[in-house]
Specification:
The protein is α+β, with helices and mostly antiparallel strands. It is built from eleven helices and twelve strands. The chain starts with a helix and ends in a 6-residue tail after the last helix. The N terminus is likely disordered.
Length: 378
């Protein structure tokens, strides 16, 4: 049985790392900055070279390295792809865009094409409509992060397969739309943030059990398991809300690699605690301590999204609410099944022990990749 569990864990680790890079790295994003200057719109679009390579095949010699020469030879193709994926309209009239410059920049997750362009509108716009349709056919999880300097306000938006159009007025911030957008982003981030999901799962799996005489024993009442889960989720929520807010308002700033590595350590610690319990009854305390770290991870996402100054509180509350909705959905999926299976012989052996071992192994791969900037399985 132990050999079977170990083999299963190895297979899960290989599959998760090889087929789903999002498990160990940030998801596909691009960064679009627009500034309206009279009748002209000046733009800069940072797009990951790995995404452009996937769409256009930049790596001509297939050596796994994209050089400046390979990018330079495809400038026209890159410009054509990006300009065809972005449509700008001022007061309903098209603003034709043209390429102006190509550069390369390095972000926390790799090299990016910096595409600069300009669009000429028939007149100074009072209302601007943006249609974003890049890379969704290749990756439904791709997000386009917009920063718009329009009049006296700086506005932000997030483009997704379900939100490809953005319409706004000069000097206007739509608070309701901003709130809904950031609620959606909070839900999306927790559901695609597999490190957060595995951390919560590691804490929730023993919630239907109690540790007694060096072994896990099933709880007798659902209310006991429910109280355990509520305590864990509440502690995690309070903790990540604290550091998320402090980081967004600029009181805390830590390197992304350090934060992501610490998140991987939190997943390992929570999983190993299920195998050799050190904290046996107050798992909410573990959730709180490591929730502080996860809040910094959420903050990195929000800061990259760009927050509207006039709607900063609205965006922050919306994102937090979205994270909580996403968490409750995870709880709703795990708790009923765990409670029904808690008396079965394989729940403590296979689900809890085997699942925790697999979680620890996957998180160890993340830790090595994040702390050493490696790609162990490409």
């Amino acid at each position: 049985m132990k050999h079977f569990i170990l083999l299963l864990c190895v297979l899960m680790t290989l599959i998760s790392t090889a087929t789903s890079p999002v498990l160990a790295h940030k998801s596909s994003d691009s960064y679009l900055s627009l500034r309206v200057d009279g009748e002209r719109i000046l733009g800069q679009w940072d797009v990951a070279l790995r995404d452009l390579d996937y769409a256009l095949g930049l790596d001509l010699n297939d050596d796994g390295v994209i050089t400046w020469g390979e990018v330079h030879r495809r400038h026209e193709d890159i410009a054509s792809l990006l300009l065809s994926s972005l449509k700008l309209r001022a007061d309903g009239k098209i603003c034709p865009a043209r390429s102006s410059e190509h550069l390369i920049d390095v972000h926390s997750d790799g090299a990016y094409e910096v595409f600069r362009f300009a669009a000429d509108c028939p007149e100074t716009p009072l209302e601007l409509q943006i249609n974003y349709d890049f890379f969704f056919n290749f990756d439904p999880q791709h997000r386009g992060l917009l920063r718009l300097d329009f009049g006296k306000d700086v506005q932000t938006a997030v483009f997704s397969p379900l939100q490809r159009n953005w319409r706004t007025q000069r000097d206007g911030v739509d608070f309701l739309r901003t709130f809904v957008a950031y609620v959606n982003e909070g839900i999306w981030h927790i559901w695609t943030g597999f490190d957060h999901i595995l951390f919560l799962s590691a804490l929730l799996l023993p919630a239907v059990l109690t540790y007694s005489k060096r072994r896990w024993v099933a709880v007798t009442r659902f209310s006991e398991a429910f109280r355990n889960v509520i305590a864990i989720v509440t502690a995690f929520t309070i903790a990540h809300s604290i550091t998320l807010s402090l980081a967004v308002f600029g009181y805390i700033s830590l390197p992304s690699r350090l934060v992501e590595s610490a998140i991987a350590i939190s997943v390992i610690a929570a999983a190993l605690n299920n195998l050799r319990p050190i904290v046996q009854r107050r798992l909410w305390a573990v959730a709180f301590i490591f929730g502080l770290v996860h809040g910094l991870g959420f903050a990195n996402v929000l800061i990259e999204l760009g927050l509207p100054k006039k709607a900063l509180a609205i965006a922050l509350i919306g994102f937090n609410l979205g994270v909580e909705v996403g968490q409750l959905a995870i709880v709703g999926a795990i708790l009923p099944a765990a409670y029904l299976l808690r008396f079965s012989w394989f729940y403590p052996r296979i689900v809890l022990s085997g699942g925790s071992l697999c979680i620890a192994m996957i998180a160890t791969v993340w830790l090595l990749e994040r702390s050493l900037n490696l790609s162990l399985i490409s």
